[in-house]
Structure formats: structure tokens, C-alpha cells
Amino acid sequence: MTNLQLLWFLLIGVLFSGFFFLEGFDFGIGMAIRFFGKDQAERDTIIQTIGPHWDGNEVWLITAGGAMFASFPMWYASLFSGYYIVLFLILVALIFRGVSFEFRANMETARWRHFWEWAATIGSFCAAFLFGMMFTSMIQGVPMDAEGNVIGTFTTYVNWLSLVGGVAVTLMCFIHGLNFLQLKTIGSLRDRAQAWNKILYPLLIVGEVLFVVLLFIFTDFFKLKAASTWGILIVLVVLTLLAWWGVAGQHNWVAFLSSGLSLISIVVLIFNGIFPRVMIGANNVHSILIKNASSSPYTLHLMTILAFTLLPIVLIYFIWSYWVFYKRLKSPNKDVKAA
After folding, report:
1. Over the stretch 181-199, which tens digit does the pLDDT of each residue have?
2. Which of 14, 51, 12, 23 is nearest to 260 (CA)?
3. How far apart, in whole angstroms, are the C-alpha atoms of residue 288 and residue 7?
4. How far apart are CA 331 and CA 163, in angstroms?
5. Average pLDDT value for residue range 146-174
6. Separation between Cα atoms, residue 83 and residue 136, nearest integer Å
7. What residue segments make up the domains of the chain, in order of their start?
8. What 3-state class would DSSP assign to 15?
9. Nearest-CA neighbor of 14 among 315, 253, 326?
């Protein structure tokens, strides 16, 4: 394995980390539109919190997929063909979620506004659940042939670990979204988001414990990388407890950053566990290794120059856009508490 191969494996991990941190609270806000918002005014405010950002946050996913295609074409081909149906459903969910914001804003009747609000909520829920299910099913080892073709059955994708993983990621995104809502609003919405998260964090901790047990049973992470796996899991639990403490003490930034870093720790756990592989085969002989899946050295070298030239510009734009829209929004009622 060369340094450039390792660099691009890490960069793809960074891109997925950025996606789950940023799009995680977008998914959470999307789920909150109908599950959390009580009336039209509240749902308007909830949507406004991510209005300037949600479409830009999805760019991290597109960039991660593009980087995977260019740097590890064999990984891209095996993953995207093997999980074609799951990725197709994710795409449908993202499309419905994306167009729902625009269509809702232009609907003249309450009936159709409600329809598109449900489209945003269900689309956000399905996207988060399917992402969690896909990533936690692929770490168990999937049926593959010597050429990297995934020959999956229903239980390859839907099993105890993938279902618990999907639910856990969905709950983490919802909590992350409520933490963002606390950060972006004042008044009753913030107070209610805090109250909800006080209830949801104990459920999340139970889910994380169950996830660890299933991870031990169904993956080789503890066998091959026991120390680093335990270390990452301890960090995950500490971040969850820190976020819970932040919610209880109304430390909004602590809660938001900790819940976002918890999502990143899941990505780190997966990338740490599969290394030096990119796809784990049920028969380990057929696993795809980083060194065998990458593009040519020239391609990786050229991509590295482009990435380190353009990435700072993109990061500056993202930071600027969040700085411009950093102010809190008032809850739609007369009794608004001071921020």
C-alpha cells in the first residue's frame, strides 16, 4: 500500500464524516417537521433553520462518491453494484426530501403542504435509516466472488446488526437535529427540543450497548483491531454522555458538537475496522484490499493536487455561509425567552 492510497482512503473517510456531521442534523430537522412541529408556524421555523444549508450539505455525499469512483474504482463498482437497490431507495428518499422543501413553499392548500411536509419527514427518516443499514451490513462480510461481485440475498442487507445500526443512526441524526434546533431557535421550540432529547439520550445509550454486542458477534473488528475498536467505542460513549450533559445543562454548543462528533465516530469505527480492506468478503480470500482497488499512481497524484487546491476554497465558503446565517430564529409565539 502506497502513501497516496492510504491518503485517499483517509480522505474518503473525512468526506463521509463531513457528510454525516452536516447532513445528520439536516436529516434530524427533516424528521422533526412532522414528528416535532405542532403547527404550520412551527414547521415553517423548523425548515428555516436549515433553509440556507441543506442542499450544500449534500455536496459532501456527492464528493465522497466521486472521490471513491476516481481513487478506488473497484471499491466503487463493488459497493454500488452490490448495494444497488439500497442506494436506489436512498436516492428516491433524497429526491423526495429535496423537492419537498420547494414544492411545499409553493402549495396554496393546506392538504398539499401537509403532503410535502410528510415527504420531507419520511424522506429524511428513510435516508438516515438506509445509510445506517447499508454501512453496518457491509462490515459483516458480504458474499462476493473473486472478481469483487457482490452476490447478496435479503439477509445480506437486512439482519440484526444492520437493523440496529439503521435505527441507531436514525436516532442519532434525530437527536443531532434537535440539538441543532436548540442552537438555532429561542423560545418554546428550543425548550421542547431540550425536553425531547432528555428522554431520547437514555434510549440512545441502550441502543449503543446493543450495537456493541452485535458488533462483537457479527464482525471481526474485535478480533483484528481490539484496542482501536474499544478506544473508538469508548469515545462514542463519552461523546454521547457529554452531549446528554450539554442538553441537561443547556450548553447548546457542547450538545451539538458532541452529537455531531458521535456520528463521525461511527464513520471512524467503520473505516478503522475495514482497513486495510475496502470491502469485506464473507470469504476473507475475496475481500478487496486498498492496494488492489485503487487507481494508478498518476491518477492519485493528480487528484491530490486538485483536492488540496479546491478543498480550502470549499471549506472557506461553508464556514462563511454558516457565519452569515448564525443568528437564532424566534419560536412562533408571543412568549419568547431570551437566548
Report:
1. 988 888 888 889 999 999 9
2. 23
3. 17
4. 35
5. 91
6. 12
7. 3-324
8. helix
9. 315
